[in-house]
Amino acid sequence: MTSDNDTAPQTVVRLHDVRKEYGDAVALDGVRLEIAAGDAVAVMGPSGCGKSTLLNMVAGLDRATSGSVHVHGQDLAGLSETGLALFRRRHIGMIFQFFNLIDDLPALDNVALAAQLTGTSARHARRRALELLDELGVAGRRDTYPAALSGGERQRVAVARALMNRPALLLADEPTGALDSRSGEQVMDLLIDLNQIGQTLLIVTHDRDLATRCASRLVELADGRVARESSLDDLERSA
To answer: Which of 33, 63, 86, 223 has the maximum number of C-beta atoms within 10 A of its C-beta?
Structure first.
């Protein structure tokens, strides 16, 4: 017989009473957040509310002053800086507003590098990179350098790179912020498609349309605290 615990979704992110101080400034103040496998959660709030700090905590790019951060079952406080870097490469995909592609590598090599850094052979890395570029509709641009790609193409290459190691969690920091409206719509559709096939998403954005279209839950921060959490159903009822 299968118990309820056997069928319950795995918790991919758990923040418990997370506080982050920068000198006298408090960026996060007792934040609690859980994200289950397959969830799509958007974090919103005014500038300076702690959105970027929260993302950095989950990515292991910054450490909590107090409280705990668990991602994919790992207590991030227990990892060294080298361990955190390796954990990110293996388990976390990241999409940035300004793409963060390597200018002197063509699209295919930008994507393949993510797997090579975890020890995958160049041949296997390039094969998977090409598969991802094909799935994202930019395989024909595999030999093109970032400067010659449109904004939408660059973000699709960046998404391919983020998915390269089949991450447990995909983090998106203002993923449509540097795109025109048409490219932004395409990236939103892509995030929706990824979530529908089971990819867990945590999105930080100022764009309420992105949040309501791509997320099943909205977390609103104010002054470093969770001010409100809403499900997509709540948002639709209040629209």
So the answer is: 33
